């Protein structure tokens, strides 16, 4: 039997999805699983997006242009103008989710064994995509003590090597919920300029900042040709399944190169593009209401978590995630145990084990990532489950 | 300004799409462009697929499982049973088009600088995906003289090196239209077995064989764990825009590894999966009628082409492509000239230049790939345009 590749072997499984089979088994046993493991919100998709798809009247579903439908690109450029980001539709490629935008950017800027510096903990799939590309992800540690603020800029500078090609940020951050300030981003800007690096920033949670406005890397002056923005419709309008994202850069070479990768895969999904274009007409009120809802959920769950003995979570400033420290031996064991051996009043809770968001084997071992995307009653149940679980989990490190 | 990657630089633009801007400009001048460059058919999509999408009634568009919806995988396994291919739904991953299935397979089996042997001319994006993966494509030449039959098996053997990991076929073939016989496939089987290679086969045109039935690599005995099937709904039901394909293998390690890459990109498109699942209920008559229609178009256009002085095309046995030799200096120049400087009665014709389907710079220089996916009247017009164009094109090599 021929062997799979080293890349395939070292490719990490998703920490968010790898316990899915245990959740499925729990559900088959009749247990309600409260999914705090995955950023799949429960808010309604704006009806205009669904309706547009239902109006489809072509006689067949054809390829779209590889860069995405022109009408969508133009309308999206207009969305950015309203968000105070001045770009042209020619700076935009429509991609199959934000995931594909990351891949195209990586392919376009990274050679084999090149390095990308990323604050740790990080969205685990960045690590997956780096592996896929044959490049290396170099972590710079942020800490729960500072609420996962940007690490000291000296730490980034120490991580630089001749192979460093880019710094990658996620702002608002998945998995920590931290929102980088203008001042922090300007420090990064100076570094990027000094060493002529690319700066990639994933801003898919832009609309979900709870305590202060968002500042986009696209507004950093002097690094216009270094900056690549990753975006997605998924979370903004709760349409994770349409698989429509965008790669945005004022660097024409990056766009032209990424377009070659886009041509190879032919086109982004047609139905998703129809939905996305219509969703850009969603009344502004929808996003305000969504952000308010998440803010209330955040306030509730973070306060409840910190009220449990030995549990610690910073107050996230944006997105809908937090990295939470638990009084346990090993988060992966705990998460699996929750699904396989625990229930409280017919329910259990599912988290994403923390170590999947770090490079080191031991890092984040007593942490989980939560996504507070469920309605209040379910969050309440989830907190109850966690409280009870920490009383009886064999690997608990303190007694409740 | 930071530099793009070597991979980005060497990534080939799509020969099928790179002249698109000249076609757009011609259309703006009011000229009808007859698209024989791209496999975008004009047959109706079965209504059941579109209707299923219109029935969408969830309150939001959620992620699907990374492997695709279970109901779709099960129903697709049943389709294969009917096509005499015995596989389980567990051998199937749903992908974002056949393109993504190729990428996942490449990532799973190829290390950096590993080699894949492919008969040449080949579907140009195979070359793109190999470049993306950091692997190398090793061509083995097939010839217009034999109608692009499988090259002698000794040629494959000569191309083997210690880095050879796989042989890749496309059957029915894009771009040549050749359909490999059981006997040819058994020769490949013996080679694959002898050297313990992977055998990847793209069978997206399975239902379009005009002169003899299709034989799938999944039915080759003794290499069950070496074989990876690439498939897609796009051409079968004329739904290129839904972006739903499949990666199929009885090698559990290949499926488990590919699933990790699938998890990193989260999920295939939801609307596309809904359409695909419903399309599997399409009456068998639809595929028979489609195949009959393409067969008539084939007969018409290939005979007409061969009737033009200096033009030569083998009679393709399947798919809806042919590699056609023209009495011209350079197909790329000719194709661009057709769009920029030529028109006949308000129309012109667009082909894909042949050299994009070969590795060598000079190969296929006087060839184009045609896709005979347009209705009879348009094919007739296209032939007229070509006839007239060959009379006046400055780089013609014979006089009409």
Describe the structure.
- Two copies of one chain form a homodimer.
- Chain A has two domains: 6-44 and 285-392, Aspartate Aminotransferase, domain 1 (Alpha-Beta Complex); 47-279, Type I PLP-dependent aspartate aminotransferase-like (Major domain) (Aspartate Aminotransferase, domain 2).
- In chain A, helix 3 packs across helix 10 and helix 5 crosses helix 6.
- The mean pLDDT of chain A is 96.
- Chain A has helices spanning 6-10, 20-28, 47-54, 70-82, 97-109, 124-133, 153-159, 182-195, 252-264, 270-279, 284-306, 331-340, 376-392, and strands at residues 32-35, 92-95, 115-120, 136-141, 164-170, 198-202, 227-232, 245-249, 321-325, 347-350, 352-353, 367-371.
- Chain A contains 13 helices and twelve strands.
- By secondary structure, chain A is α/β, with parallel strands linked by helices.
- The first copy, chain A, is 38% helix and 15% strand.
- Chain A has a seven-stranded mixed β-sheet, with helices on both faces. The first copy, chain A, has a three-stranded antiparallel β-sheet with strand order 9-12-11, with helices on one face. The first copy, chain A, has a two-stranded parallel ribbon with strand order 1-10.
- Chains A and B meet through helix 1, helix 3, helix 5, helix 6 and helix 9 of A and helix 1, helix 3, helix 5, helix 6 and helix 9 of B.
């Amino acid at each position: 039997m021929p062997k799979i590749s080293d890349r395939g072997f070292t490719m990490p499984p998703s920490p968010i999805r790898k316990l899915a089979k245990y959740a499925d088994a729990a559900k088959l046993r009749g247990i309600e699983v409260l999914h705090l493991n995955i950023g799949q919100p429960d808010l309604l998709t704006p009806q205009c997006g669904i309706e547009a798809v239902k109006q489809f009247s072509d006689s067949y579903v054809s390829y779209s242009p590889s860069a995405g439908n022109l009408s969508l690109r133009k309308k999206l450029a207009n969305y950015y103008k309203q968000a105070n980001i001045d770009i042209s539709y020619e700076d935009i490629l429509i991609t199959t989710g934000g995931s594909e935008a990351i891949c195209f950017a990586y392919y376009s800027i990274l050679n084999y064994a090149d390095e990308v510096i990323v604050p740790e903990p990080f969205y685990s799939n960045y690590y997956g995509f780096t592996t896929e590309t044959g490049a290396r992800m170099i972590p710079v540690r942020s800490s729960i003590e500072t609420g996962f603020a940007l690490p000291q800029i000296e730490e980034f500078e120490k991580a630089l090597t001749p192979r460093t090609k880019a710094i990658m940020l996620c702002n608002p951050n998945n998995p920590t919920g931290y929102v980088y300030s203008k001042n922090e981003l300007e420090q990064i800007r100076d570094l990027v300029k000094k060493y002529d690096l690319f700066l990639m920033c994933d801003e898919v949670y832009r609309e979900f900042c709870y305590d202060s406005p968002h500042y986009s890397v696209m507004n950093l002056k002097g690094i216009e040709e270094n900056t690549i923005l990753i975006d997605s419709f998924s979370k903004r309008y709760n349409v994770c399944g349409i698989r429509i994202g965008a790669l945005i850069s004022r660097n024409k070479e990056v766009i032209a190169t990424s377009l070659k990768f886009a041509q190879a895969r032919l086109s982004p999904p047609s139905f998703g593009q129809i939905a996305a274009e219509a969703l850009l007409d969603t009344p502004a009120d929808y996003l305000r209401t969504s952000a308010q809802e998440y803010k209330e959920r955040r306030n509730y769950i973070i306060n409840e978590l910190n009220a449990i003995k030995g549990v610690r979570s910073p107050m996230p400033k944006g997105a809908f995630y937090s990295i939470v420290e638990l009084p346990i031996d090993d988060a992966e064991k705990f998460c699996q145990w929750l699904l396989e051996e625990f229930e409280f009043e017919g329910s259990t809770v599912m988290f994403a084990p923390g170590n999947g968001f770090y490079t080191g084997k031991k890092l984040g071992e007593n942490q989980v990532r939560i996504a507070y995307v469920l309605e209040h009653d379910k969050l309440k149940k989830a907190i109850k489950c966690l409280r009870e679980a920490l009383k009886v989990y064999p690997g608990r490190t303190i007694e409740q």
